[in-house]
């Protein structure tokens, strides 16, 4: 994986982008980003990049393919749950629920890898 910056600098950049999006939505980006799209939804891709940087620079292996496989399996589980048990499957409801789970798990995994890399 090509990475030209250290993961600690990348983490600072991610925090800066997050703060820019968080506070910029109220002033500069008002009306340009729909209200139903949360800041976390936009930050997931940057957090995936940081997870790849941390795992590759620390252990010379990327954890992203395994993480994406888990997300796909969770997506299948959500479809089965919504389709068979709750009988309320709609693609929009599935995608919103799945993307929120991906966001929460991505934050937890990122914090876990930061803790492991620092120790």
Write up this protein:
It is a single chain. The mean pLDDT is 87. This protein is flat. The protein has four helices and no strands. The longest helix has 28 residues, at 91-118. It starts with 6 loop residues before the first helix and ends with a helix. Helix 1 runs antiparallel to helix 2. The protein has helices at 7-24, 39-59, 64-85, 91-118. It is mainly α and 119 residues long.
The overall average pLDDT, rounded, is 87
Oligomer: single chain
How many whole angstroms does the radius of gyration measure? 17 Å
What's the shape? flat
The largest sheet, given as strand count, sense and whether it forms a barrel, is: none
Distance between the termini: 23 Å
List the secondary-structure elements in sequence, H or E.
HHHH
Based on secondary structure, the structural category is mainly alpha
Distinct helical segment count: 4
Number of strands: 0
Q: Kindly state the percentage of residues in helix.
A: over 70%
Low-confidence stretches: none
Approximately what portion of the residues adopt beta-strand conformation? under 5%
Structure summary:
The protein is mainly α and 119 residues long.
Describe the SSE topology.
Blueprint: H1 7-24, H2 39-59, H3 64-85, H4 91-118
Helix pairs in contact: 1-2, 2-4, 3-4
Task: Give short descriptive properties of this protein.
119 residues, mainly alpha, 4 helices
